[in-house]
Amino acid sequence: MSIIEVRDLNLFYGEHQALHHIHMDIDANSITAFIGPSGCGKSTFLRTLNRMNDMIQGVRIEGSVKVVGEDIYQTKVDVEILRKNIGMVFQQPNPFPKSIYENITFGPKLHGITDRQKLDEIVESSLKAAALWEEVKDVLKKPAYGLSGGQQQRLCIARALAVNPQILLMDEPTSALDPISTAKIEELLAELKETYTIVIVTHNMQQAARISDKTAFFLNGELVEFDSTPVIFQNP
Ligand code: ADP
Ligand code: ADP
Predict the structure, then answer these.
(1) What is this model's ipTM?
(2) What helix, strand, coil percent values describe the chain, rounded to 5?
(3) Which residues line ligand 2 (CB under 6 A)?
(4) Most buried one in 8, 83, 107, 179, CB count within 10 A?
């Protein structure tokens, strides 16, 4: 079953058309990689999947994006609920200037969870899911900025998971990291795929080949190829 269905999507930044007639189905519990040269529309397209472009002035969208069967551009859609269902991780690790514990509990508290024991459980399970628990379990009250870049990025993944989303959007999540931290996150994605649907923008073709089930290749705002990753990489 497709968890995301995109039909004839066009996106304009003012007069400039950044996406042209995009059509895409994304399977649940898969990893889809978006590749293509800088400026081809990868990040823009990723942001259409959780309406992050809404925050940018002058953006106009045509077509439809269905997430779990619901057209997210219908005005009745609650964007807060949508974003709860779709976590996002960015290129630069961006933990809140708070403790490790508070980074994880921020989202759950926003959604009304106040029970201390429940919050403790969420902190532990989210950090375990992001393969960070063992490294931070004794320093949960310390500021997040004390962590290494790779640890901060795994904290941002844990923070995204803490509100129990179905989908994880990642915009070049390893581009700012060293090779060892990158490898850790790639390993983690293979595990997360069991539970979540992952869409990842990467400028690294080898990374797309290593980690993804399907690869989408963008050029000048068009989706020029979209197929299983082995097929894409045997037909250069
Ligand atoms: P990629 O992620 O593939 O590098 P982007 O989605 O960032 O590409 O950009 C696609 C095109 O849209 C580029 O021409 C870029 O300059 C333009 N663009 C991206 N973001 C904005 C914005 N906020 N306002 C106007 N134009 C933008
Ligand atoms: P990246 O390629 O790493 O995504 P960019 O340099 O394309 O980074 O974009 C950085 C930020 O600037 C993004 O938020 C993007 O939306 C915005 N941006 C990119 N191109 C433009 C543009 N032509 N006009 C306004 N904002 C833009």
Answers:
(1) 0.76
(2) 40, 30, 35
(3) 38, 43, 91
(4) 107
